[in-house]
Structures are given as structure tokens and as C-alpha cells.
Design a protein that fits this description.
The complex is a heterodimer of chains A (419) and B (368).
Chain A: H1 2-22, E1 28-33, H2 39-46, H3 48-54, E2 57-62, H4 66-75, E3 82-85, H5 88-96, H6 105-114, H7 117-122, E4 124-125, E5 128-129, E6 132-138, E7 141-145, H8 146-152, H9 160-172, H10 190-203, H11 205-214, H12 222-235, H13 244-250, E8 270-271, H14 282-286, H15 288-291, E9 292-296, E10 308-317, H16 322-331, H17 335-343, H18 361-372, E11 376-378, H19 380-383, H20 386-401, H21 406-416
Parallel strand pairs in A: 1-2, 1-3, 10-11
Antiparallel strand pairs in A: 3-10, 4-5, 6-10, 7-8, 7-9
Chain B: H1 2-44, H2 49-77, H3 80-113, H4 127-134, H5 136-168, H6 173-181, H7 188-199, H8 211-218, H9 232-258, H10 262-270, H11 275-286, H12 288-303, H13 307-312, H14 322-332, H15 336-363
Helix pairs in contact in B: 1-2, 2-3, 3-15, 4-15, 5-6, 5-9, 5-12, 6-9, 9-12, 10-11, 12-15, 14-15
Classes of the chains: A alpha/beta (419), B mainly alpha (368).
Chain lengths: 419, 368
């Protein structure tokens, strides 16, 4: 017995030594995030330059349940070095509990140099910068089947009034203007919040929009109600939306645009972020620039111009090591996005980036829209407390589309706001 | 002379004793030290994945075995009395520790967290529980759980009993029982995916790929979004559970029915009882214990039902149940306090049923 125990100990020790020698002094940075194939491969391609230059090994691990797991990992004492957070609300919470490390002076000056001020603000909690933005998206986009539009003689509208005239013309022609779907598993309702935020930005302007996020105006404020009503005028009208309200609630957001590419199209426009092209039918994706047209959701009140609603992943740091800092600094440079931009499906906020890297004209239009936007605002539901932004707001939108009264729905969301 | 010798011998004995004691302590301490070192290495090391995995397997499996051997070796050094009384704990102990670590401590921690706010940083007293009893959505979730409880339990248990009785008298007993038991092999999430295709809705004019709508429109109806019709949508969801658990109830009832003594039934027949009378007056009273055991088991399942709601509607259109509210509060809205409070409530609600269930199973000969 004694002998066998000793023997066992030796085996273990030997194993440890063997493995010890195979451990080269390679530094590793672990990154945890929500986006998966094919985006994860594109991200890996994007930081390959960094790995080659520094010899640091960056390991990106995606998870479908990121928003749940990141909490479990952090609270359980096993955080990654860096996490890609799609919602500023997540960052606020980690910052509040001092679980993430603030940016150091060099990183802050990099952010100031390479981004427009809004991105620094979006990465800050109570004035302290924590996050570095990398891939971002533009949501105020309307997609349409280009060839069918040409045949029907439709022109992209530039004002809300023009868009209304266009919708009227479509209805007269027996066409249904909009394709909309809000189903998305546990997050059902979010496409509706995006619509409403876009309209809010265009009717109430960026300042009121910010107050809405910080709860300086209540959720049942007249400005919010007006935005909801403008949206519902379209959404609840069965002539305006393919399948009517029932169709909206029973169509998943990714399937919604597909009816635009049938012959003849069953719906003629679709408002959604730039990522939606990945959900288009394969044969459309192969000829994206020929098949699909895009324009910014027109402005409503001319004084606010054409605001851009968007979102993005911010990278925050849970452990402070030199190699982690190095990688964070790399993400703040235009170089870090180029390979991903070339692969497609992503936009980057860095100043002075190479716009030619974007694969087609369609994407370039979006990147320019993002860089030139006078007013850029982050998706409000992602900034609100999760109780509202990932709870009552989504749910309230579903209730609204389902026919509940605007006043009572807005009041209910207001009531759910944490004190 | 003799005195010196005895002293010598005593010294010798003492030295050997100390040496033994030292050795007895040295072995486990060294072993623990090595295990701990490997643990640290596994946690922080950067070796290739394959090496890590191999070490982890050897460390895990070998470590557990080595710990048992060590414990056994240590105890075997003790005198007979100690040896006898300690040995059982060596084998039960680890299981108890793991049980405490994974079940008991988390339960206490949930109770503790339920008195704190969303980030667990501020004490809020009973505010979370107050919310649980006043919030509109929470109240709806109680109502829904009640529907699950009543409709789910009575139908699954009732159908199970009915089928068991009928199958007992049928020529196709085996085949029919297999078919009805089959859905038990599917997970709740899997069943959710299957039933999504039953309840699927497409706007009028499209091909109805949902089974129910295909039938309904074939008879001239307009397509219905079944899962949005309140409050029937909850009943539609309950039927998925009934579909799955009827088989379970049936199998156990069937076994119990076969245990009813033939002499009793024949005595009943001799006394002139009809089949229905025999079932009502002999079979059912005889298997009463089984009925309680099966019903409480299904009751517990309906109380903690989550998967079906989560995969089918995500709790929308007022289909939320207590467990899905808990998940939402905890993992979608990151309110640890509220999530824990709901979990505690659910736990308290399940305890009496659990007690009844375990007692009943304990009384049954077959489960002893």
C-alpha cells in the first residue's frame, strides 16, 4: 500500500515536471465575448497582427449565454482577462462593484485621439473611462430590394414626409411597405425598442433622448408617448406591415426581411441594423450590392438632422497585467479593425481608418454614415438599467403591438424603473 | 540492571511511537501538499490543453482514490473501537460534504441574498418579498403556476390512471404503453421544439406549417396564434407537460394495478360488482398510496416548471411562471436579490409537497 502511494506521488510529480518544461514562457490574454462564428473567426483574424508582433497569445472564447455566464464567472472569482460587453449597462454594474479596472492615462489619450468624444463617454462610468470600443453597428438603416424597387419606380425617401408618401403609393399599388418581426427568444421585443429609439431621436432630439436614458424624464413622458404613437401608426396598420400586428409578434427578427426577396416582394422595406445582411438569403448575400439598397431612416424634425442610432462592443479589463494592457491599447487603434472590416459584416469607429478595407459600396456608405454622423446615440435599451432595458421595455413593446393601451404600458414601464 | 533495561525499552518504545506518529502524519501532509500544488498548477498553469486535461484526469480520479486509501490507512492504525465507529464516516463523509457544498450552502446563500438589493451591496429587508406579493407580473405568474398545478397534475395523473386501467384489459397493452411512455425520453427543451411546430402561426395566405393551424384552417378557420390567446395559452403549454408525463404515471399505476390481489377482485365479482364498481371500490382504494406518490411527483414538476415556458413563449403574453420569473430577475435583469427572493418562495412552496412525496414513497414497500 505504502509503496503504491509513493509510486503514485512520483508519477504525479513527474507529470508536473514534464508539463512544466513544455510550458513556454508565452503570455496569454483571455477574451470572453458574445459573438460567435463567423464573427469570432474574423475577430481572430483581426488581432493576428498583434500576436505576430508581440508574441502574446490572445484566446477568444465566445458563448451563446454570455450575458449570464459573465456574471457567473465574475461572481465566482474566475473572470476572463478581458470581456467584450455589448451593453454599457453591464459595464456600469461591474464598475460599480469595482470588478473591472479603469483605463490608464496612455489608454485614455489613445481613446481621445482615435475616437470621437461620444465613444469615450460611452465607455465611462461616473467620469472614469473603463471601456474601449471596437466593433460597432449602425441601426438607423432601411433596407430594400433594389431590383424590385427599380422595376416599380420607387425612390429612397430623404424626409419622413417623403417616406409617408412613398408608403401611400405602395399601398395604392397593392404593395405592403414594411417587413417587421420582433421574435427573439428571451429577448423578444428588442427590434421594437430600436424602432422607438430611432423615432425618439428624430422627434425629441438627442438631449431629451439622453434624459430618457438617465431617467431625468419619466418613461411615460409626452415625448416618449409621441414616439410610441408614431411607431404604432405604422405597426398596428395591417396595410402597412406584412402580416399585421400578429405577424410582427410571430416572426423572428432574422426571418422578417426574407419576404422582401420573394418575387414579387411581399414587403418592400425593412428597418434594421447593419448586421441583418447576414440573415438575408444566401443568393442575395452573394450579390449584396446589386440586390440590396439601403438608406438612413429619414429625419422627422428637421432641426435634429439625421441622427444615427447604434451599438457596439466595449472591451473591459478584469486583470491588470502588461500584456492585457497592450492588447487593450491595440484595440483602440484603427489597425485592429482592418482585417475584420475586409472580411465584412462589421463597422469600426476609429478615426483615420482605411475605408477602402470595407468590401463593398454598401458597407462603405454605412461606415461613412457612422463617422460623419453629427448625432450618434447608443441604443437606449442597452444603456437603461437591465430591469427596464432587458425587461419591462421589451415586454412593454410586445404588449403595445399586441394592442394594449399606450398610456398604461408606458406607466407600467415607468413603474418598473429601479429607484 | 533490570531497571535500566526497562528504561531502554521504554525509550525505544517511545522513539518508535514518535517515529510512527511522525510517519503517520508525514504521509497525509505530503499527499495533501502535492494535491494542492497540482491544483494550483491546474488553475494557473499555461500548459497545452491536452497535458492539462491528462493531469486533471489523473489528479481527479487518482486523487479521490488516494484520499480514500490514505483515510483507510490512517483509520486502520487506530484501535478497534475507534476504527469501527470512524470507518462509516470515511465513506459517507465525502458525499455529505459535497451535498452540503452544492445544496445546503447555496440554499442558505439564496436566503441571505434575498434580503439584499440587486448588486447584493445594500440590505433592503423584506422589500424583495413585498415586491413578490404586489407586482402585477408576479401575481400573474402565481396564477399560471396554479393552472399548471391543477390542470397539469390532474390531467397527467388522470390520463395515466385511465390508460393504465384500460391497458390492463387490452390486447395491445405492450404496444400502447410503449407509445405513451415514449415522450418521457425527450427533454423538456426538446419537447418545446417539437411542440413549437404544433402551435406555429403564419399569417393567413402563407403555408400553415403549424399542425394545429393546418388542421384548424382545413376545417375553414382562420389561422390562430395559439400561444397568444390568454389565458388559454398557459393551458396549451400545460398539455406539453401532460403529453410527456402521462407515460410516467401510467407505468407506475400499471405496476400497482397488477399488484392488486386477484382474490380481492374475484371476491368482488362473486358479490356481483360490475367492472366500474370494481375499479372504484377495489382497485383505486388499493393503489391510493401510489396515486398520492405519483401525483405529488408531478405536482413538484409543475411547481418548478421552467423549460417549456422558456422555450415556447419566453414568458411573454402572460405565460410566465414563478421559475421563469426567477430566471429573468436573476439572469436577464441581474437582480440577485429579487431572483433569490423568488427562489426562496418557490423552495418554501415545494417543501410540504416534497415531504408528502417522500413519506409516501417511504411507506411503499417497493421503494424501501
Amino acid at each position: 500500500m505504502k509503496q503504491s502511494i509513493r509510486f503514485f506521488g512520483f508519477v504525479l510529480l513527474a507529470l508536473m515536471l514534464i508539463s512544466g518544461t513544455t510550458v513556454a514562457e508565452k503570455k496569454v490574454v483571455t477574451v470572453f465575448g458574445p459573438f460567435q462564428e463567423p464573427e469570432s473567426t474574423r475577430f481572430e483574424a483581426a488581432y493576428k497582427v498583434f500576436e505576430e508582433r508581440t508574441g502574446i497569445d490572445v484566446v477568444y472564447t465566445p458563448s451563446r449565454d454570455f450575458e449570464t455566464l459573465i456574471f457567473v464567472r465574475v461572481e465566482g472569482g474566475d473572470p476572463p482577462d478581458i470581456a467584450a460587453l455589448p451593453q454599457p449597462g453591464l459595464m456600469y454594474r461591474f464598475a460599480k462593484k469595482q470588478q473591472i479596472k479603469p483605463l490608464w492615462p496612455e489608454a485614455v489619450s489613445l481613446v481621445e485621439k482615435n475616437y470621437s468624444p461620444v465613444w469615450k463617454e460611452l465607455g465611462s462610468y461616473e467620469g472614469t473611462p473603463y471601456g474601449i470600443y471596437h466593433r460597432v453597428n449602425v441601426k438607423s438603416l432601411v433596407w430594400y430590394p433594389k431590383k424590385a424597387w427599380e422595376k416599380a419606380g420607387y425612390q429612397p425617401p430623404t424626409t419622413w414626409a417623403e417616406m409617408e408618401t412613398l408608403c401611400g403609393k405602395m399601398i395604392k399599388n397593392g404593395h405592403t411597405p414594411w417587413a417587421i418581426g420582433v421574435k427573439s427568444g428571451g429577448a423578444t421585443g428588442w427590434p421594437a425598442t430600436d424602432w422607438m429609439e430611432d423615432i425618439m431621436l428624430r422627434t425629441a432630439g438627442p438631449e431629451v433622448y439622453d434624459k430618457w436614458i438617465t431617467h431625468d424624464i419619466p418613461f411615460d413622458d409626452p415625448a416618449v408617448k409621441r414616439a410610441a404613437e408614431i411607431m404604432l401608426n405604422i405597426w398596428r396598420d395591417p396595410k402597412m406591415v406584412y402580416g399585421g400586428a400578429m405577424g410582427i409578434l410571430n416572426t423572428s427578427f432574422g426571418d422578417a426581411p426574407k419576404v422582401m426577396f420573394e418575387d414579387p416582394p411581399k414587403a418592400w422595406m425593412h428597418r434594421q441594423g447593419n448586421f441583418i445582411t447576414g440573415f438575408f438569403p444566401k443568393k442575395i448575400q452573394d450579390n449584396l450590392a446589386d440586390e440590396v439598397g439601403v438608406f438612413g431612416l429619414p429625419s422627422i424634425e428637421p432641426q435634429w438632422g439625421l441622427p444615427v442610432l447604434g451599438g457596439g462592443d466595449q472591451y473591459v479589463m478584469f486583470s491588470d497585467r502588461p500584456e492585457v494592457r497592450q492588447f487593450m491599447e491595440f484595440l483602440a487603434t484603427a489597425e485592429s479593425g482592418e482585417a475584420w472590416a475586409r472580411a465584412g459584416g462589421a463597422l469600426f469607429p476609429h478615426k483615420g481608418q482605411n475605408l477602402d478595407a470595407y468590401p463593398d459600396k454598401l458597407t462603405r456608405i454605412q461606415a461613412e454614415m457612422l463617422l460623419n454622423a453629427e448625432v450618434f446615440r447608443f441604443d437606449a435599451s442597452d444603456m437603461m438599467p437591465a430591469k427596464v432595458g432587458a425587461g419591462s421595455f421589451w415586454r412593454g413593446m410586445v404588449d403595445l403591438v399586441g394592442g394594449k393601451k399606450t398610456d398604461s404600458v408606458l406607466r407600467k414601464i415607468e413603474k418598473s424603473w429601479p429607484k | 540492571m533490570t531497571q535500566e533495561r526497562t528504561e531502554d525499552r521504554l525509550l525505544q518504545k517511545a522513539l518508535v511511537g514518535v517515529g510512527r506518529l511522525f510517519f503517520t502524519l508525514f504521509v497525509p501532509v505530503t499527499a495533501f501538499f502535492i494535491f494542492f500544488k497540482i491544483f494550483i498548477f491546474l488553475r494557473d498553469g499555461n500548459a497545452p490543453q491536452l497535458v492539462m486535461t491528462l493531469i486533471a484526469i489523473v489528479w481527479g480520479v487518482g486523487g479521490v482514490a488516494a484520499l480514500y486509501f490514505l483515510g483507510y490507512w490512517l483509520i486502520s492504525k487506530l484501535s478497534g473501537k475507534w476504527n469501527k465507529s470512524l470507518l462509516p464516516y470515511l465513506f459517507v463523509g465525502p458525499a455529505l460534504v459535497i451535498l452540503a457544498w452544492y445544496l445546503f450552502i447555496p440554499t442558505l446563500r439564496s436566503l441571505y441574498l434575498s434580503f439584499f438589493n440587486d448588486t447584493s451591496m445594500e440590505f433592503v429587508g423584506l422589500a424583495n418579498f413585498l415586491y413578490c406579493f404586489t407586482d402585477e407580473d408576479m401575481l400573474i405568474s402565481y396564477r399560471n403556476n396554479l393552472i399548471w398545478l391543477i390542470v397539469g397534475t390532474s390531467f397527467a395523473s388522470g390520463f395515466g390512471l385511465l390508460i393504465a386501467i384500460l391497458a390492463d384489459r387490452s390486447k395491445f397493452e405492450k404496444i400502447s404503453k410503449i407509445l405513451i411512455f415514449l415522450p418521457m425520453a425527450i427533454s423538456f427543451v426538446g419537447a418545446g421544439v417539437i411542440w413549437r411546430f404544433v402551435y406555429e402561426y403564419k399569417p393567413a395566405g402563407e403555408d400553415q406549417i403549424g399542425l394545429l393551424n393546418a388542421i384548424y384552417t382545413a376545417f375553414g378557420g382562420t389561422p390562430q396564434a395559439w400561444l397568444m390567446i390568454q389565458p388559454w395559452n398557459t393551458v396549451f403549454l400545460v398539455f406539453i407537460m401532460v403529453w410527456m408525463w402521462t407515460g410516467y404515471a401510467m407505468v407506475i399505476y400499471s405496476a400497482a394495478i397488477k399488484g392488486v390481489p386477484v382474490s380481492l377482485i374475484e371476491a368482488g365479482r362473486v358479490d356481483g360488482a360490475g367492472e366500474i364498481r370494481i375499479i372504484a371500490a377495489i382497485t383505486i382504494p388499493y393503489i391510493k398510496g401510489t396515486i398520492i406518490a405519483v401525483s405529488t411527483t408531478i405536482l413538484i414538476i409543475t411547481l418548478k416548471i421552467f423549460d417549456i415556458v422558456y422555450t415556447m413563449t419566453g414568458g411573454l403574453f402572460d405565460t410566465d411562471v414563478v421559475a421563469s420569473m426567477q430566471y429573468k430577475q436573476m439572469f436577464a435583469q441581474h437582480d440577485f436579490g429579487m431572483g433569490s427572493a423568488i427562489a426562496v418562495l418557490l423552495f418554501i412552496a415545494i417543501i410540504p409537497v416534497m415531504y408528502l412525496n417522500l413519506r409516501q414513497f417511504g411507506q411503499q414497500e417497493g421503494f424501501k
